Fold:
Amino acid sequence: MKKITVGLIGFGTVGSGVVKILREKKKLLSEKIGIEISVKKIADKDISAKRNIKVDSGLLTAKAQDVLDDPQIDIVVELIGGINPAKDFIIRALKQGKNVVTANKALLAQDGKELFALARDCNKNIYFEASVGAGIPIIKALREGLVANNFNDVFGILNGTSNYILSQMSDNNYTFQKALAEAQAKGFAEKDPTLDIEGIDSAHKLILLTYLCFGRFVDLKDIFLEGISNVSLDDINYAKELGFEIKLLAIAKKENDSLDVRVHPTLVPESHLLSQVTGVNNAIHVSSDLAGELLFYGPGAGQLSAASAVVADIVDLTQDLKAGLFRPTLNAVADPAITRLCRIDEIESRYYIRFMTSDQPGVLAKIAGILAKSNISIASVTQKEKRKAQVVPIVMVIHGAKEKDLRAALNMIDKMSVIKQKSVAIRIEEE
Ligand code: HSE
Structure:
């Protein structure tokens, strides 16, 4: 049986999952694909750390170049994450004539255009299924399964850690800090959770989905980005009383000639499927002209689910290597109707708003007066009575308004002496 040889760079959680799957599913895989996949070398900075899998010490090396420069290695699997040295390793692997599998969304979101072009020049491929939604095969689905479709939008819950935190707040009344500490104790959230909770990881994944659906790489700095660190338990509970859950959504939508790309906490009706997505699960909604509305759902983080996608990429590459051909990945073609990115102040949305005000006559009338002057129509309003409290929340839902008009109105409202804290406004998505 033909043998394909793999080298790993990065022997952390996902790397050990890959080795485990290749070992435990060896027979199943070789029966399915008619090829034996063998791991020849594993490079990691720390080769003495305890892992949940034992490997022959002869496989391990502390030097990535032992993998990159080994002429027998056909596929390099990069799992160290981050920009450098991961980028240098991928460049070197391609130039040495190796195909690459990576889960590195931060790197591909930043430098994917350059790296994919280099791969083509080298007649090699970079596969990256594990970079979005772990084991959910969304990249293959967008690129191959939906090849004949044009897309109207792609949006969803792309970060398992944030979703876990929001779910614990909503289901168990945890504060943000308590939910984050639990996510860290369970190993979902990193010690420094910034990438996950500030929406950056979701934005990296959204850049890759936007590339696949609309054929263009959007710069991280051009994405409107708001994480979940300012979402309060009060807002989650008030939203729930109104029939909504708060979810961190990553959204790319075609709006006439522009592309609206953003990541922010969003109120989603409790009847919407995305509201039912809890814990570390992800869900990606795709609206396409031929296949219609599709939802891809499942665990978005976790050792074996991410490793399952890495192994699928390795297997895909083995098929080409077996046939002795270079089959470039299908092109992502730019939608000619899209000529620009939409600015956040152009978007129109319904909003949930919370004002914190002194409890005295005329406050509501003053707020309503400013909203009316800005042509903003109120859909519902409730004042939450807090006994003895001097500051009370007024919770409002407004009908569709331009972000620009709402921000201008809130600026005026927040300057009033009766307003005691910066007002909170969260967008509502209902489609
Ligand atoms: N940190 C990511 C998440 C998983 O919480 O979704 C890896 O992409």
Summary: Residues 125 and 328 are 6 Å apart (CA to CA).
